[in-house]
Amino acid sequence: MSSRAGRSGFTLIEVLVVCVILGGLALIGTVGFRNFVEHARLESATHALYTALSDARSAALSAERGEQYGVAIEPGRFIRFRGGEYDPADSQNQVTEFAGITATAELEGGATTVVFEKRTGRAAQSGVITLVQDATNASTTLTIAPSGVVSPE
Questions:
Q1: What is the pTM for the complete model shown?
Q2: Distance in angstroms (rounded) separating the CA atoms of residues 46 and 48
Q3: For residue 67, what are the contacts with CB-CB under 8 A and spacing of at least 6?
Q4: SS3 105
Q5: CA 103 to CA 49: how far, in whole Å?
Q6: Buried (b) or exposed (e) across 89-126, using 16+ Cβ within 10 A?
Q7: 120 phi/psi in degrees, rounded to 5
Q8: What would the pLDDT profile of 88-119 be if each residue is shown by its tens digit?
């Protein structure tokens, strides 16, 4: 007769194997979810910057308030401003902060601002703006043509 006769249940080894398998699956799910959240954060920042550039160009095209409009790019944020030059002290500036994202501008003449001419919408500084997700190193790029048209790549 066997010594296990009449006993039911799981051995400690069987329980540990199941725990290890469930732990591995949970880890895979957590990493995948984190990557999804970081990617969504990068896409959201790219959309916000694209919208700010497009809005600034539209305001300049319509000669809203008879002024030029632009966007200043800084590593952790961008600023939509009114006028031909960025003034950090202007209370009318619209600042948008990035969380965990670094922006770099490679514009004509090493500029970090894009100013759109009134009534034509042409960009005084064309080039590319790259947003990089700090946690994953994923990136997106916006291209600003001399005509002022902004396009994602």
A1: 0.79
A2: 5
A3: 60, 82, 83, 84, 118
A4: strand
A5: 10
A6: eeeeeeeeebeebebebebeeebbbbbbbbeebbbbbb
A7: -110, -30
A8: 999 999 999 988 999 999 999 899 999 999 99
